[in-house]
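In this supplementary section we document a worked example of the pipeline. Step one takes a protein sequence of length 132 as its only input; no multiple sequence alignment statistics are reported here. Step two produces a three-dimensional model, which step three serialises into structure tokens for compact storage. The input and output of this example are shown verbatim.
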Amino acid sequence: MAGLDGSPLLRTDFSDEAAWKALIAAVSAPSPEGFRAEIYPVENRDFEGAEADRVAAADWNDAGILFIADRDAMQGDEQAVLCVDLVDGSSQPFRCIASELWGVENNLRLGNMDYSEFADLADVSRVFRGFP
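The serialised model returned by step three reads:
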């Protein structure tokens, strides 16, 4: 994974190839303002069905955040990707709907915001649906 630009989007659910392709398209689509999430898809069956804490413990080089395409992300109507803090691991994971992933990814990768700020903006179901 060394040398890759952007943030990793790890596939942990391999049950539906079309859902995976649709999720990648959704998170890669530009915002109305033209911003895009800079992600790189990672398909590694060693992580199939793995929980967030297990995958977060792997070596993700200098990535500050890991996006996980688990069963909920692949099958849910909002394609809500699981977001895991790789900087200090003290914050609880939250989900982000695919259409708003650009905001999380861009701001965290560029250091404009902290993970905890996005976690605080998530609703009561721990889903970030965009800026208020």
